[in-house]
Design brief:
With 69 residues, the protein is mainly α. The protein is 39% helix and 6% strand. Helix 1 crosses helix 3.
Length: 69
């Protein structure tokens, strides 16, 4: 799934919940991959594994990750 040009705010909560339900990672166009569990790191392509960041599946955690990464 791809989400581009979305309004920040509540959309972060939707993305976090979707990732949690689907067991998906979030890969911003210009940042590190965001994973919800350390065990998901091995599922990423090799070039994304080293810099992947583990976050909680919440709106606040996703917003903070986008601000800092």
């Amino acid at each position: 799934m791809t989400a581009t040009h979305f309004a920040r705010g509540a959309m972060f909560g939707v993305l976090a919940r979707l990732a949690a339900v689907l067991g998906a990672s979030i890969v911003p166009q210009d940042g590190e991959a965001l994973i919800l569990h350390e065990s998901e790191r091995r599922l990423l392509p090799a070039e994304l594994q080293g810099n992947a960041v583990v976050i909680a599946p919440t709106e606040d955690a996703l917003q903070a990750a986008f601000r800092t990464h």
